[in-house]
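#struct-help
A.M.: can someone run this one for me? Single chain, 336 residues.
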Amino acid sequence: MAGLTSILVVAALAVCAALPTPDPVLLRPSEQRFQYAQGADGQLRLVDLWLKTSDVAASARYDPDRQNVYHLFTRQNPTVSQPLLLGSESLLELTHFSPDRRTVVLLHGWLDDVLATFNSVLVPSFLQAADVNVIVVDWSAGANVVNYAAAVRNTVKSGESVAWFITWLNSVTGADSRSYHVVGHSLGAHQAGVIGRHVEGGIAYITALDPALPGWLTNSQRLRPEDAQYTEVIHTNAGLLGYAMPLGHTDFYPNGGVNMPGCGSQQCDHERSIHYFGESLTSSTFVGRRCASYLNAMTDNCLLPGRLAMGGLVAKTGSSGIYLLKTNAEPPFAQV
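D.P.: on it. Structure tokens below:
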């Protein structure tokens, strides 16, 4: 009988060893576990938002101090970038970076890289609008992971590293952090906030383009108004791929924040914020009317006095509130 028991125990252990080992969940936030998020190809993917041990392992492999690459564009080199690396003064000396100009920092989203639509729209728009340094942050080593929860963790890690890069850049060039404008889309919008709260001396202006919703509802690292002297948010897919509630000093809800004219998908809505902001830099004025709450903005029920222009090159420091505006279905998107 003892021999039979031993055989059964061995057999049971063999069966257990053959079964897949579950990935322990380390954190179970109150938000829904499975949600859709948009990839760089514009397709929606169902992602797991609960943090697991595999997510931590995937994030641990990302070293932004070593893997992030910074691409400088100026009016002297508007189409071919000059690479910058944290700590490399010799490489910096070969570029057209000028501490006498304002500096724009651009942050792409999930599964994206330096070639993202976000950058291809905003780099030429900024350079057309003003003589500025434009630094495109390629954090694709942290963003190009199918594991979305790891990408959320990497968003914070990259933001801390970019803040250190800016601090180093200022220390060797004499540039002033208060002359910086940081612009991010989706995950990059929250990364902009992380950067702002870690840069010595603070930064002047953050523009957050449809900040990501999945993974950020209960995340203490999400964008905050005080991350810059002036923080502005443009919501175009609110409550779906994008965050619905206000996150900045000023929050704009074009067309109520969802269902952009000319779009037929959430992906298009989510990306429209990029095009609206790009147009605001060079050719058009988007004027919003003030709302009592974001719910009023989303239901087109804004009766308060007051108007404010959305986007633009210069921070509207001191302004605040929630605003609704209407757009056209195709460029020019601003309604006259």
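A.M.: thanks! Residues 28-325 form a domain with the Rossmann fold fold (CATH 3.40.50.1820).
D.P.: also worth noting: The chain is about 35% helix and 25% strand.
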